[in-house]
Specification:
This protein is mainly alpha-helical and about 230 residues long. The chain has two domains: about 80 residues, no CATH class; about 140 residues, no CATH class. Helix content is about 80%, strand content about 0%. The longest helix has about 35 residues. The chain is elongated, with a radius of gyration of 24 Å.
């Protein structure tokens, strides 16, 4: 048995009404509540949602709290998985990627110069993943709208966009506040140009960070709900 069109519409309206607008919580709540409706077969779905389902989650506020707590927990899981993926690159056989990154950066320093190499690696490591994930988020929104889905974004997309935006925020703070005020631009430029190993490390880190963010797009972070 599956929900009738009327039951589906009532459930969707209810979930939107309590403020569930991202893919993961919407699908989790929808699947669980739909299963309960199919099992209990209530005559009035609206009353059933209000008097049975909603109290089982602690009311509308309880549902919003669950969504918020799961969003926080999912974010922590994503950060944890990101660290696992990043540090796994330093184990065999992925260590080959790290070695190749260092070799390419050092070769570029010699052949193309420090400034070009830094700009190129920052673009590849930070800007390219940002563009790819931004395009993915826009495509996701467009596909949801085209297929008449009841959400336009996902927790995963939001968390990943935060991850790829973080380096730009840090560079903005470092480049426009710390460097000119604390260090001095000329001193910093001289320090970077004279410390080739530090520059190599930073450039290689940018490439590995971008690779890690893109690899996270293949992961799934799903929770299962249980009605009390």
């Amino acid at each position: 048995m599956s929900l009738t069109t009327e039951q589906h519409d009532i459930l969707v309206k209810y979930l939107k009404g309590v403020g569930i607008g991202h893919q993961e919580p919407f699908e989790e709540f929808y699947d669980h509540i739909a299963t309960a409706i199919e099992k209990d077969k209530p005559e009035d779905v609206s009353t059933y949602l209000r008097e049975v389902i909603q109290p089982s989650f602690g009311g509308a506020k309880g549902i919003k709290k669950i969504v918020l707590n799961q969003r926080k927990a999912r974010s922590k899981m994503i950060w944890k998985r990101m660290k696992e993926i990043f540090f796994s690159l330093f184990g065999w056989p992925a260590i080959g990627i790290v070695m190749v990154s260092f070799i390419l950066v050092q070769t570029s320093f010699i052949q193309l110069g420090t400034k070009f190499t830094i700009v190129a690696t920052l673009a590849l490591g930070f800007l390219l993943p940002f563009i790819i994930l931004a395009y993915g988020a826009i495509s996701f929104h467009r596909d949801c709208k085209r297929n008449n889905r009841n959400y336009r974004n996902s927790d995963l997309n939001s968390s990943l966009m935060l991850l790829v935006h973080l380096p730009f925020s840090l560079m903005n703070i470092f480049g426009n506040l710390i460097v000119p005020v604390v260090i001095g631009r000329d001193v910093f430029k001289h320090f970077i140009s004279e410390n080739i190993w530090l520059s190599t490390f930073l450039c290689a880190f940018a490439l590995l960070y971008g690779f890690t963010c893109l690899k996270l797009t293949k992961e799934q972070f799903i929770f299962k709900l249980e009605v009390a």
